[in-house]
Amino acid sequence: MKSVLIIDDEPDMGFALKEAMSRFGFDAQFCRDPLQVLSNMNLSDFSLIITDVKMPKMDGLQLLSEIRKRGIFTPVIVITGYGSIEDAVRAMKLGAVDYIMKPFSMETLKSLVSRLIPDEEEIVAQSKQMRRILEIAKQIAKTDITVLLTGESGVGKEVIARYIHKHSQRAKHPFVAINCAAITETLLEAELFGHEKGAFTGATERKLGKFELANEGTILLDEISEMAYRLQAKLLRVIQEKEIDRVGGTKPIPVDVRIIATTNKDLAEEVKKGNFREDLFYRINVFPIKIPPLRERPEDIIPLAEFFLKRLSNKMSKNFSLTTELKKYLLEKAWQGNVRELENFIYRTAVLSQDGQLRPPEETFESEKTIKTGKLKDAEKELIIDALKKTGGNRTKAAKILGISVRTLRNKINEYGLKDN
Asked: Does this model's pTM top 0.70?
């Protein structure tokens, strides 16, 4: 599921980013409190995290550090109105995939996001395990059999789900994905089944649910193990009767949908614990496929790394290559975050590369003071010049546009020798 979490204590910026991400085709959520993010959200379920730096309860770099300490390798973009070389370096060392300064255009953000999460996924499979999985996936794609994809976070469950849809007779119809873990129970019901106008406070118009949107196509129920027990009963009825009831509706609506579900948990164990309905388990566990973690298929590591690097080279119009030292490092690393972690690592290392040659982290960060310095300073200088032009040289207004203090702007003007501009 392409879902984005936005963390910013400024509501105007947060809602603007949420609206932009929604237009880009993402299921976007906005939260103002980093502590709430850490305590109440499963961050592995998001395709991307965007966080501000300066926030009162915890700054964005501390949040990023906590995310990585928990073994979560979701791509993180750090945004700030108070940029510095030191913060940029620290953000990259903590695992941020990029560090951008306010103000920035939404088109710039869209370009960055498209590099991180492309619309079309290509599957690289050199290992026997993955080649066999693709053979099975293509074979069952010809049927309407319900599929349960299992495996650790980041192994590529959604990629396989899209592969099945692409090779099915439903390929010309919608593929709709929903993350069952990223939405509260009340909202999830409306997202799945839709709602009528006036069904609840804020329901100002009728909304079609994901099942209706996926009609004649495929619906991906991502992380189905996180679905509330009450909703599991409603989902069971949809599977059995092939019809849904909108929230606030008065009559059932028939749907023709192929269901693919994913989970990173042992659903049989969840049934024993009373967290998952046994009857629903048997309904979705018709054809289970377990995707092995990357560490169990090392033959895929270098081909995947080269694939990600080639895609990045095309996007950035720059030639990148893996050094022998980096290949050795990649093969020795455990990759607890699986393919997702590998992709983020390759992207981050390429961005920090001075000559296009990707090296292990200890070499990459050996010259901290020069990492991205030139690029950051050039970009910062251009932003300041542009802001001053727009405000007719009014430093107070320019500082407001840039999201920095007048004092910081004055120091930057002196630093870049812009006194006479």
From this structure: no
Q: How far is CA 242 from CA 135, 247, 253, 254, 259, in A?
A: 29, 17, 9, 6, 11
pLDDT tens string 11-63: 888 888 888 887 776 778 899 999 988 887 878 778 889 999 989 889 889 99
Task: Please report, for the domain that includes residue 386, its CATH number.
Answer: 1.10.10.60
Contact assessment for residue 79 and residue 52, using Cβ atoms and an 8 Å cutoff: yes
Q: Is residue 361 part of a domain?
A: yes
Residues 168 and 170: their CA atoms lie apart, in Å, by 5
Q: How many residues are given for the chain? A: 421
Identify whether residues 260 and 135 lie together within a single domain. yes
Closest CA to 223 of 182, 255, 185: 182
Contact of 151 with 290, CB cutoff 8 Å: yes
Domain boundary among 118, 141, 169: 118
Residue ranges in 98-199 assigned as alpha helix (H): 106-116, 128-141, 157-166, 185-193
